[in-house]
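Async update (no meeting this week)

Hi team, since we skipped the sync, here's where things stand on the single-chain job. The sequence we agreed to prioritize is pasted below, unchanged from the tracker. I ran it this morning and attached the output directly underneath so nobody has to dig for it. Comments welcome in thread, and please keep replies under the output.
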Amino acid sequence: MSSDRPRFRLSPRPPLRKAERGSTLVFLFGVLVAACKPSPPSVVLATDSHLDLRGEVQAFYDWYSDTASLDRSTATVLAVLPQVLSPDLRTLLQADEKCKDASQSICNIEFDPFLNSQDPCARYEVRAPVPHGDTLAFPIYPNCAWMRDTAPALIALALPLDSGWVFTNFIYGGGSADLRTILSRPVTE
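Output:
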């Protein structure tokens, strides 16, 4: 016996029967269909085609807190970017602005509602959102020269839409207050 021959002998496999060929073809077809099936949309696409909604909210905060334009206010947002506010939030903010103009005094909000501050920082950092009903809750962290907060100054609720997105509310104090509730209070003089 030569050393390059196998010690065992393989018997040739008998040809597949007609029934076996059919089941093999069905199996291969199933594998092909499964391989071609589109994958489910990723979590990022849950924002209605806004691949970077966080970046869009950050762009708003970069524009709003730009130190070269310290005159940013609720009135500025209402005049320049009203489309970033939901219609009902816009109406509530407009009513408060009209009240301030008519009374020459503070009405419902005595702080910056977009920053939750009377002394804003130079920059605000928008962190990753958390689903909050049909909106996304973005924690907004102040980034001040004198200190960096470890807790968000506020939570901005943004509603993704097919045509864009809008802020629907702002939550303050860890959930103890929110802008819509504050603006809905009757004004006392």
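Quick observations from my side:
DSSP finds five helices and six strands in the chain.
The radius of gyration is 30 Å.
Reply here if anything looks off.
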